[in-house]
Amino acid sequence: MIGLSNDTLGYASLGASTFLASAHPSESCGSNGLPLTPNSVRILGRSQLLYTVSHPHLCSYVSIQRGKHERLIVVQEFYKCDLLAAWNNHQEFQTEKRLIQVMHEVMQGLVYLNKLGISCCCNLCPRNLLIDPYGKAKMNGYGLYYMTEQGTAVSFPIGNEFSAPEVLIAGACPELRPAGGGGNPSSDVWSLALMFLSLILPTQTKSGHKEPLEISVATVLLMASKSDHDDLASAIIDQKPQLLEKFEMLSAATQDLLRSCLKFDPTSRPSPIDLLSHPAFAGLTLTAPVDPQPRPFPRCTIASPRKAFPPMDEMLSNYPLPDDCMTLNHDGVKTGIGGLRERSMREVYHLWQLAGGQAEQELVRHGFIISRPPILVKSSSEDTEARKLPLVIREKDVEYQFHRIILFHRLLRAYPYYRSRIVADAHMDIPPYHRGEVWAALLGVDGDTISTYAEIDKVTPTSTDRQIEVDIPRCHQYDELLSSPRAHQKFTRLLKAWVVSHPGLVYWQGLDSLTAPFLYLNFNNEALAYACLTAFIKKYLHKFFLRDNSAVIQEYLAKFCHLVAFHDPLLFSHLASIGFVPELYAIPWFLTMYTHVFPLSQIFHVWDTLLLHPASLALCVAAAILRHLRHQLLDFSFNDCILLFSDMPDINIEQVVKDSVDLHLETPVSLLYRHHAPPSSDRDTEQHLSGPLNDLSSITLAEQRSEICGRISGADVVRLSEALPGSLLVVDTRPQHLFQTGSLMNAWNAPGELWMREGDSPSEDGGPQLVLEQAKLRAVGKMAVVVMGTKAAHHLTLQVCEQLVEAGVARVCLLHGGVDVFQASGHLVVPSPGAS
Amino acid sequence: MSKETSAARPGQRVTNGGGAAAGGPGKICQFKLVLLGESAVGKSSLVLRFVKGQFHEYQESTIGAAFLTQTVCLEDTTVKFEIWDTAGQERYHSLAPMYYRGAQAAIVVYDITNQDTFGRAKTWVKELQRQASPNIVIALAGNKADLANKRMVEYEEANTYAEENSLLFMETSAKTAMNVNDIFLAIAQKLPKNESGAGGSGNTGNINVGSSRTQESSSGCCK
User: Fold this and answer.
1) What are the structural domains, with CATH classification, of chain A?
2) B208 in contact with A at a CB cutoff of 8 Å?
3) For chain B, is the Cβ count within 10 Å smaller at the N or the C terminus?
């Protein structure tokens, strides 16, 4: 679903931890009178940023979820060896050189976090400093202080015996916490230096065993309260002179480093970024850039291959590797990395969950876990059987998703060059894991989305702000992520950005719902969410957000009526007779492209298909919804119908979507012609050609709205009758003598006056009843019933159409421009004598 | 929802006698009622409280309009409300006439914690007095009365305004249900229960989005 960091699992395990957010007193309200957002939801929103962390000295966050009763469960990259274990088991970790290197590595991680906006971790200690098989330091648990809003969202203090004096004091007296601030970066510097000090000046037990120097919280606070020394190192040595000799054996640079990092006064302590260039670190180089890298959407431009893991013999000796890396192959060599361990942690975790894994359950079983994904993926080629299963089952099928994820992962790396492959494969289905980016690809998002978004003014107040402000707290709030304050901020920025960047268009209520799926799928990439929203509206809701959009909407609704009359004349006539017009129920469907109608889980499936089709598919989705509720609607009165749609009933959305695609295929393209359709692009199949045979632009809105059925273009008639001979019934309503001068091949001459004669019994050439019966018989199995007359007698042609629709004849349409359009094009032939 | 109900399009007829509930010779009257007011003042919440007895803090916004029905009993008369709950955003204003046209009653809602919404309510009242059916019963509802500590519109101010304009007036709370049923009952009391009085402005036929009143005769797309 969400994810920026894509770090490979490698030799890591996944570790889960859990804590409780503090509960609000019941019935407490915020300043706006609404109940307070639960702290766990606040945390969930803030914690999303942690997913973006990708740095070699920081353990990746894999999952942060809410459990019951304000519980949060955090799954993070994990190693079985921490700094203390390494120090105990490996001599080299007791040397100054090696410990300085560890400190340098952690310092890089801290700088990276600071740049990301996480100014303080607050809980650095040897237990949270993990050492990977190659001896590299990896910080764990660094996001707790940040996600809990400096510990205010939990009822326990965050910190430990290595915490800086100001952190210890704030932990004991919450009112002393820095207001609004994110903590002080130099607090972490203290913890790091104190760890170093305790490891480099160990004490010897009677049994000859070495133990880290113990410096209690009380000692630290006592020394800080006295003013004899500026820093802890000097104060300790003053108290324990026997340490002086050892301390002076350290290099001068290291001594200076420790003294300055252990200053009692936080304001005179350096911050991590200052320290990177400290002389103590001379000769050490950065492991990786310390600037967080935004992940650009078209990714292929800087696709660098993953670095291979170093050989296993470069590992620390006796390192506690995960069991599956320790198995021996035929030659008796450890297998190391293989299979799922090549994939990213997040992917593996996602698959593990699909396979039934639940972090919370594991925690219940063990108290804590070091999990290894129990997924067994056969190396067989793609399972074709799975393709036939229903979509919702495919989305939960571990093996199927494994293949889909890998496929789309590769295709996305090659976007935009492989856009056509992505489109082709998305026709099968879209793996939820990659949905956000697949959608972006389908929408053709390209270019520098990040700078584009960054340059937009999302701050200056505008007259729309009040409306946006009242709408957001009501938009898809059943979803916990979207109900978090962080999501509300992102919503606001996205909507303000869109409004300010589209001067001709305005904010209509509903735009908020339209933004929700993009925000949900790209929570950590607002720029991409914005680019998708913009591209989507341009294609699917062209002109809908004009200040005066009534002409656009009226035309849209008229086309919807034509579509219903074309495919289901019986339902159409019933709904028309009870006055159940789409103005009363379908405006939110179209204006929000169903995002105000369905929950997110269903919107995803509607849009997965919508994005593969031209804008007109949205009309067919509405027609398919009516078709699914047809039996009820036919039976219902006006009130029942409108109540039915006031609260959209549960419908099989996968089937509705499938039907809408069928309806779209079965509808001649010109029947869906709209003046206000977006200008066609090369990528679309929708064509707007010119010439009298093609050009439908002379239809007025009044005609669109007053005519019972849609108009077909001459070109469509020619195309259909050539591609599928016999698929059309062409009804030529001109008088016989005109018909004999030339008509379309196989046209049926049923002159207008036959349809109009009232009252009398059937004469020899038949009355209205007889001609209708004939029409019904001839229309069976046809793709379309094209009614045509002279342009001058348009009203007559229209009346014939009305009679056909009222009689329940399906797929009736009217030839735009009358027979006249074929006169010049040479499609008319003289019928053989006796025809019709 | 019973199936015998007739169309709720503008201009309801009053069904006399026939189909009355067993147990009395009572009449059944149907009235079309419309809710108007600024966004997020609680229009949908009032209806939801009245019709389903529910309340959602994060009631989603209304686009276009929503429709619900509810029946109340008054002595010997059963009054069935057909309620159109409209979108609050000013931009949707052009849709409003098709909902209030032919309505016999309207509730104009404002939020007592927001002075601007009261100003908007007055504009709605003026528009109804000018454009809606002349006999329309208008009620003014000062909603969110449970947030009295954030009050920005004084009871007296609204009450005076309501008296000057012959409006029913109550402060309501969809959250606590205060005065919600009462305001609908008060409207039901005030509505004329005889054939001549409740017919409204007659059946206007089709509903045309965005069309002006003069276009009523031209048929919609689905006639």
Assistant:
1) 13-281 (1.10.510.10), 386-442 (no CATH), 449-672 (1.10.472.80), 691-822 (3.40.250.10)
2) yes
3) N
